[in-house]
Amino acid sequence: MPQYDIVIAANRGPNAIDLINDSPPSGGLVSAIEPALSDIDCVWLSAVPQYKNRDIPLRSAFGTPLISVDIPESIYDAAYNTVSNETLWFCYHNLFNIALEPRFDRRFYEAWEKYKICNEIFANEISNVSQNSATVIVHDYHLSLVPKILRRLRPDLKICHFSHTPFPDCAYFSQLPKNIAPEILEGLAVSDAVGFHSKNWMDNFNSCLNSYGLNANKLFFAPMGINPDILLQETQATGAEDIKKSIEKLKGDRAFIVRVDRIEPSKNVVRGLLAFEELLERWPDLKEKVMLACYLNPSRSSLSAYSAYENEVLKAAENINLKLQTSTWKPIQIIVENNRLQSLVALSLADVVLVNPLKDGLNLVAKEASIVSKNSSLLVLSKEAGVYHQLKEFAFGVDPLNISETAKLLHDALATDRETRDKIHSNLKAICSENTASNWIKYLLKQVS
Questions:
Q1: If pLDDT is split at 50, 70 and 90, which confidence band does 1 have?
Q2: Residue 442: closest CA among 4, 33, 13
Q3: Average pLDDT of every residue of the chain
Q4: Predicted structure pTM score
Q5: What per-residue confidence (pLDDT) applies to 290?
Q6: 283 and 366 in contact (C-beta within 8 Å)?
Q7: Distance CA 141, CA 351 (A)
Q8: Using N-to-C axis directions, what is the helix angle for 365-372 and 340-349, rounded to 10°?
Q9: What are the angstrom distances between the C-alpha of 377 and each of 30, 142, 149, 234?
Q10: Contact 389/199 with Cβ under 8 angstroms?
């Protein structure tokens, strides 16, 4: 087996260009990082997708070698669903429905043992493909224990773990079982460097370490960048012009507010809909002159909390439309489809982009919107998004729980004159253009060099 000087490990990897597989399109992490690795000699290990014909060397569209980590289905399902998504994800986003969840019962503890096995398998695969003193970048909460296991297997390796979610404060994190919470912290802390998108998440992690009497070798924060040139190329892909004409016909000459999100509880879509309703009620002159289009990607629909939230979103939109629509105007359009090109084209035509998550590790949509915009779109941005502290000077910062404030800021953004709009957007675009994904990945490598 070939060995590499730089190893990337994540639950999900890029799709292989020379294979047809059943994997869904890659998510935000993959789409941002994959192109940035084109000039770096590295390998990417992932559990998903499972590449067929594994004896054939596989590469991503940008040339990165790809290796599947083969994990038995029963182990992977428990680690990915029960521990990572049903428990850690909700903990890290402060979203436990505490009256009912979490449930640390026999099912959970059995799943935790499988989570540990999953991390062991990943660590062994990383060890096998790593050259002496190689650099390993481990991504996200699915692989929290990998750094500690890898340190035991290969003390020569330089290890960076980077979290793409928020990290909760001590009070919230300590809701995890007393034997598991410190195990997660220790698993991460032995890394040569532990990174986050936001100083807030880094500080929370450090406070948790202190409360458990632990220390990290090095902590840092670095908001991930995007790929501006590739984004602009994507908006020119085959079919983009037809999508543009369709959206322009839909919106007509109305002001166009756009949001692009996965359908998940942290994205706060329902409050965004209610804020738009309040906007129309407080400023009735805007009726029939503005519309909100929500491009929502299905996400983890097998989890009951996600499917229930999708139903709440659809119900809220339907109720508002029934209340306010006219024969010639439907105020809210909900498009539930995994169609990245459609989302990018919509963002390019937006007057205002609404990004109001309850908690978000970063939020790439806030950055992508500024690059593809053809209309100097303005950004209404949650102060709880990891990207907020990087973009706050040129965004309308909002408390994601405050529906009335969100409505007011949507109004203010719509009312901004053209000269001011162009100036704000130009500055926002400059920040997002300068902080690229390529610069970001090189910065991570420097943290352990």
A1: confident
A2: 33
A3: 95
A4: 0.95
A5: 98
A6: no
A7: 35
A8: 60
A9: 26, 35, 46, 19
A10: yes
Q: Which domains does the chain have, with CATH numbers?
A: 4-221 (3.40.50.2000), 228-434 (3.40.50.2000)
* Mean pLDDT (whole number) for 378-387: 98
Token pair for 348 = 């390019």
Angle of CA points 27, 32, 33, to nearest 5°: 105
Residues 416-429, mean pLDDT to the nearest whole number: 98
